[in-house]
Amino acid sequence: MTEALARCVGVSRRFGSFTAVDGVDLRLGRGEVVGLLGANGAGKTTLIRMLLGLLATSGGQVLLFGEPPSRQTRQRIGYVPQTLGLYDDLTPAENLAFSAAVFGTQPGQGGRQVMAPALPESLRPYRRAVVGSLPLGVQRSVAFAQALAHQPDLLILDEPTSGVDPLARARLWETVAIAATAGTGVLVTTHYMDEAGECDRLMVMADGRVVAEGTAGQIIGDARVSVVETGSWAQAFDALEAAGLPAALVGRTLRVPGADPADVRRALGPVQAGVTGAPATLEERFFELTLTSSRTRSPA
Amino acid sequence: MTAPAPRGGAGRPTATAPQWWGTEQVCVRFGDTMALDQVTFRAVPGQVSAVVGGDGAGRTTLLRCLAGALAPSSGQVRLPPPLRIGYLSAGSGTYPDLSVDENLAFRATAYRLTAATARERSAELLERAGLAGARARLAGQLSGGMRQKLGVIAAMLHRPDLLVLDEPTTGVDPVSRADLWWLITRAAAGGAAVVLATSYLDEAERAVAVLALDAGRELGAGTPDEIVAAMPGTLRVSDTRPEGEAGRRAWRRGGRWRIWDPPGAAARAGLVGGAGRAGGAGPAGGAGPAGSAVTPDLQDAVTVAILARELTAAGAGNGQPEGGGPR
């Protein structure tokens, strides 16, 4: 087993009477890409803030590179927050130079000398523009370049690809993969289930806890949905709704996660429809896990 | 373009509902920039349609035309009366300094709903979208997902004939996304023609009809399957990034590499025997791993369209069709 870059053992964080993170275990090794999935409020950002050393734990232990989070461990982490953390009024190169100066240390103090990195080839066309004037996809590339400039051992990305087109997303993931191949461990949150395929392993969080872990295939397991084919989907949608079976519209068919086809058939009553079972998608399974968690949590 | 099938299996269009709302050969110029160039789009009652494209594709401009908020420079629009349109602009379309209830009350007045109708409808939609407990909160204090749900509820409060939603789900977590889709489905089930812009291609695949835009022009239109079928060239998948020229036509997806071969490119590179056949059967021939043929989905087809335009712009396009146009 390789050295764990980051470890959480039974980590919790409470804010007053609210438990944001509840007994989370996590282990991230060298070159591993771990995806953290969860709805808003599931505890992802709180967990990340504890890993960064920005927030103290209420219980359990966080270890980075074998020691508690500190300014020294912070120096070995690259972080891209949702808000990107760039200065809008500076050019990409100025942003990189500033960040390098912040991370820079004197040789001989155990740290590494950080030089202002050369602007990546893909950003050269934008070298004269201030960051605030650039398209979102380009801004995200700048934030990636900034986070990677000091060759971090651990890279933490909070929704790194939100709002950019699929080609720009693919290129950001290429950057992540290059860093991982070089040995950097990556912890990434995303709302795009399609991106789960870029991760070696996924952790699904709900209500502060890890409710599932593994590859997408392992998390989906044998979860199934009922698929309703009908010439009158609107009536079917209403009937299922009335029976407490929320259905998702896909084209002109309805998909009902976690429901048995026989129950769905019964709920449809007089509506003419064909009902079959099908394997669930990761998003459907995720939805089911989140729903189950909130039901067990708040007995309603 | 392919007109979506009229009302097939749709909700319950009223007897007076037309076949479609939309644009016909619409152009929009902003100074020297052609934001929309001859775009035809039809939104069918009781059906969800999606508009996809990258930065600057023209999605917001088209949706503003559909909302009646922007008059085209040329071409025609066919829209319901303004009070029968619901519109969520990019950003949120709610007033941050008003509470959830106040936002909806204001909308209800603007739409000329009776107080009783507005109360009943608001309560139903807020309850189902998980916002019932947030009615007294200021919209500006809601989470991104909650604010978007409020925006969609505000836009559909008056049961519009045409519901136009500009990126309702961008940056929204999957659970809120499911709530938003419930609202969208509710509106379509009630007979509205729903148009949404999205950057999630898996979401666009849930629509009955999709329009893909790029630089103001139509890249493809029809059902998601039709757009995929119209993708020019072929696609391969490989475990490693190809070297050289093919590397420029490659992108990462699902931990592997997709490689696009424009029409004729695969044959020229000696990868396949005949034009039109999927690549991957032949030797690598110095162009990196040949990979194996893969059936594209909507995300692949839209990525190819963006890539084709980029290669054309860079002058590196090696034989791909002008503008990456399908067919």
Sum up the structure in keywords.
heterodimer; A: 300 residues; alpha/beta; Rossmann fold; Alpha-Beta Plaits; 2 domains; six-stranded mixed β-sheet; four-stranded antiparallel β-sheet; 9 helices; 13 strands; 31% helix; 27% strand; globular; B: 327 residues; disordered N terminus; disordered C terminus
Structure description:
The complex is a heterodimer of chains A (300) and B (327). With 300 residues, chain A is an alpha/beta fold. Chain A has two domains: 30-45 and 77-219, P-loop containing nucleotide triphosphate hydrolases (Rossmann fold, 3-Layer(aba) Sandwich), CATH 3.40.50.300; 224-279, Alpha-Beta Plaits, CATH 3.30.70. Helix content of chain A is 31%, strand content 27%. Chain A is built from nine helices and 13 strands. Chain A has helices at residues 44-52, 71-74, 92-103, 136-148, 166-181, 216-220, 233-242, 261-268, 282-297; strands spanning 4-15, 18-29, 33-38, 59-64, 77-80, 154-158, 185-189, 201-206, 209-214, 224-229, 248-250, 253-257, 274-279. In chain A, the strands form three sheets. In chain A, strands 5-6-7-3-8-9 form a six-stranded mixed β-sheet, with helices on both faces. In chain A, helix 5 links the parallel strand 6 (154-158) and strand 7. In chain A, helix 3 packs parallel to helix 4 (136-148) and helix 4 (136-148) packs parallel to helix 5 (166-181). By secondary structure, chain B is an alpha/beta fold. Chain B has two domains: 21-222, Rossmann fold (3-Layer(aba) Sandwich); 228-318, no CATH class. Chain B is built from nine helices and 13 strands. Chain B has helices spanning 59-66, 100-110, 115-128, 144-156, 174-189, 201-204, 224-229, 265-268, 298-313; strands at residues 21-30, 33-43, 47-52, 74-78, 85-88, 162-166, 193-197, 209-214, 217-222, 234-238, 250-253, 256-261, 292-293. In chain B, the strands form three sheets. A six-stranded mixed β-sheet of chain B has the order 5-6-7-3-8-9, sandwiched between helices. In chain B, strand 6 (162-166), helix 5 (174-189) and strand 7 form a beta-alpha-beta unit. In chain B, helix 2 runs parallel beside helix 4 (144-156). The longest helix of chain B has 16 residues, at 174-189. Mean pLDDT of chain B is 84; it is low at 1-14, 272-288 and 316-327. The chains are: A alpha/beta (300), B alpha/beta (327). The interface between A and B is large, with 45 and 54 residues.
